[in-house]
Structure formats: structure tokens, C-alpha cells
Specification:
heterodimer; A: about 400 residues; mainly alpha; Hypothetical protein af1432; 4 strands; B: 3 strands; about 55% helix
Chain lengths: ~400, ~130
Amino acid sequence: MLEGFPTLILTTALLDDYLKSRHELFFGDKAVHPFLELKPYKDVHDPIWGTNGFSWRELALIDTPVLQRLRRIHQTGLAFEVYPSARHSRFEHSLGVTIVATKVFDAIVRRHAGRLRQIVKTVENSDEFEQTLFRWRQELRLAALLHDTGHSILSHTSERVYGKIPMLQAAANELTDHVGAEKKAGEVISFCLSHTEALRSYLDRAKTKLMKESEVPDEFAGEPDMDNVSLLIVGRSRHPLLQFVGDIISSGFDADKLDYLLRDAAAAGLPLRYDLERYLATVYLPKSNLTDGKSKLEKLYKRIGVKDLAREPKGEGRFPYFHSYRLKLPKRSMNTIEQVTICKLMLYSYIYHHPKVRAGEGFFEKVLSWAVQIWAAQGAKAQICLSCSWTLTTPRCMVANF
Amino acid sequence: MGTEEMTLGEFVKYLAALLTENETPMLFKEEAPWHFALYELYDQDFEGKPKFFGDLKFDWGGPFPKCKELSRYLQFLHSTACVGTMNPSYKEMILKPDLEKMWFCEFKKIGETEQKFMGHAADLAKKEFSLVA
């Protein structure tokens, strides 16, 4: 799938080696995890979204160091220095995004059952409507869980530093070229991680640990296509007609935003809200054109083996395009759109761009840049700088890396 | 200042000042014409084209080729109160008169080739806006 993108292949291989050597018990040749039998699903309580179930496959993934390290990464960088309670982590945010993404997907299924039946027929050439939807839902949930795994210490603060490592810059350019949309270093790592053989074989192995006597609820059924999970992480999907699933993870009003707006505001103690119920009651899938002026999408779909897919010539429009369905909010949801926009503006103004937060992060960014320079001066190749950056989850880890 | 040093932010400022000077209504809610104009400039050869065009990235898959950086600048014009948009439903952006004067003065100070290029950009933008209106 990544042929023609040497840096993405290299980054994936590097992360694969890293996982296998650093976390042998999970990903090595003699891996023992998951060593306990997995329940079909478990309920997890979240302060924002309440009690929600997670499937055995998701639980296995959550148990890995790939997800567990997110517990030590502050969602809002150094904002806790100004808002003492803003100590929430990328971990609970990832669980939150999974929950919201599922709510959006289920709302779409309720509203557009007929349309989805057609899409299932076209994309999968199958009449197994419900099973297919369960599988897509499972892929979406795994992508939501994995979407932030590329983050390092203090989230975006460190991303600005390791994004300058030449290898990651090259990988970000390749990923941008691969999916036809601008992608940054953090997304590169999340994308490549989901491609690693270590993670994929771990999930295969987890299946053998599923309690045999219990039945997995339908909603968590389906054998996910991990290649599609990787694409969903970066806001694409394995077929133009499924673009709306990618939109749930990454778009103007995606599940990521819906979660972090409420979570960050609540953690900082700011009374900001938007109307999720109205969002869910109105979100819909209009027919839409997936423009493809530079043939990037055409090449992507060819690479991933989509058959019988014709790109429409430009006709009345200016660019060739694919028929698609996109996630949209109608005009009557203007109130919700305004609430989300204002909420975001307020969060930027109050938290993310608070002068003291920015001063602290600027200082930390310099320290981290200095650390990367030292690694480079000590002869560390870009690959080592990358693994060092990714290892960093707490200042203590950072010191340990010297 | 040489053209090659012009940044996307300066480009947006000069363009906004020029369009306001020419009394061309600048669309706000409908962002597509801005991106179409930028993409056309990106795609064509024109004397004095600033260097930053070479670094621009456009996202495919939407109804138009979208440059995220341009979107951010347009939003910043609004969030930093350089433009007003309550007319009454975010249809147009109206540049503050004192900023228009200041940015137009800055525009007048750039080189002739750069001014020609900006004039061409303003014509393109005007054409794109008229297609929507």
C-alpha cells in the first residue's frame, strides 16, 4: 500500500523495530500479552460522555504501551500551570473521541439506512448490510483510538520540534502526497504505527484470548481492515463513497473537535458548551464531489486496490471528481455550528493561547529543540531522534534519554 | 521588499486592501473563490510570483482545492477584528477603513513587479467572487 513512499516505509519499519525491541512482552517474538482472557466488552466511565462499552479488540489495544503512554501526555500541554485542573491526558481524549465518533456514525446509520444499503452494495458487493456496518463501525472506533498515538510530551508543543526532524518532514510530505491532503508529523507517526506488523499481529493474537463462552455483542462484531483504519486516522477512507467515515475522524466538525472542546473546557473549569444533541439530530450525508485535480486520490484508490472505480471527467466543474458522500451539517444547524466555532475561539483565547501558557511552552520548545540538537550532534541519525522524541512522555523520560 | 520575500500573510493583506480599494465585495462564508483564485495563481506562471507559492499545499477531496494556511489567514482576519462579517450572516468581510489605508500604503511601497502581480491576483479574485455572487 505504501509503495513509492520510501520514508513512510522506513518510518513504519523503525516504529515496528522499536515496538518489538522496547516492548518485547507485547510485540516481540515471545510476546505473552494479552495474557489474561479478554471479556467481550467492558464498560468505561467517562466524565464527559458517561458509561460506554469497549470491545475486546479495543480493550486489547488500550492495554498496549502504544495507548497507555498517552496517559502521561497532557492533552493541553502546559495549560495546567495556569488552569490547575487541566491535567487530563491524551488517553481519556482518545477514549472520548471513540465514543463521540460512534455516536456520529450511529446517528448517520439511523438517518440514512437506505443510502447506506446502496453504499454497502456498491463498495462491498454484498447484501450483508448489518455485518458490514458493524465492521465499518469497528474500523472507525479503532482509528479513533489510534488517532493521537503520534503525540509526544506535552502534545503539540513537542510536535513543533520533532516535526522539524528531516526524516519526519519528508514522511509528512509523502503522506500528504499519498492521501492528497496536508498532514503533519504527529499524524505521520499515528498512521505509520497503525501500519506496523507489531500492532497488527498483536491484535490478531488477542483474538485467541477472547473468552469463548461469551458472545460478542453485534455492535462490536466484524473483522476490521487495518489498512482502512490507517486511512481513517488521516481522514481518508478506502473508497470515495466511504469518505464520510474519514470525515468523522478528521474534518471541520469531527469527533476529535467535538470531544476536545468539551473536555478541555470542563477540565479547565470553563463553562463552555455546544449542543451535541442537535448536532446528532441534524448531521447528514449529502451527495458530494470528491475533487481530484492532481490525480492524487485516483492514485491512492489504485494503490489500495479499489476496483471498477471511475473518476468523472471535469464536465461542468473545474476538476475531475469521484462521487462521494460527505459528513455535513445543514443550514438549520447554524446555531450548533456557531456554538462549536465560538467554543473553539474561546478555548484558544483562554487556554491554548494564554500568554503564560505560550511563554511556558515556548521555553519548553527551546529545551526540547536543544535536546534534539544534542542527539544529532552526538551522531544520532534522524531515526534515533525520532524514537527518542516518541519515547518522551514525561520530563523524567526526557532526562533518562541523555 | 522583493517579491520573493512576500509571505502568504502579506499577500492576503495586500489583496484585501486592493479588493477593498476596487470596491470588490470580499466573500467570507463562501470560502471557495479565495481558494480557486489562489490555486489558479499557484498553477500558472506569472512574472514576480512570490516564492511562498512553491510551498503551498492544497487538500483534495472537498468541493475545491483547499489551502489550509489560506483558510487560517482568512479566519484570523475575522478573529483579530481586522474585518467585520456581521452583514447579517457572515456573507462578506468588510475591511476596517484605517487598516485598508495602512495596508494600501504598504502595498504602494512594494516593487512594480510585485504590484503588477498583486493586481493580477486581485483581478482573478474579483472574477472568482463574481461567479458566486
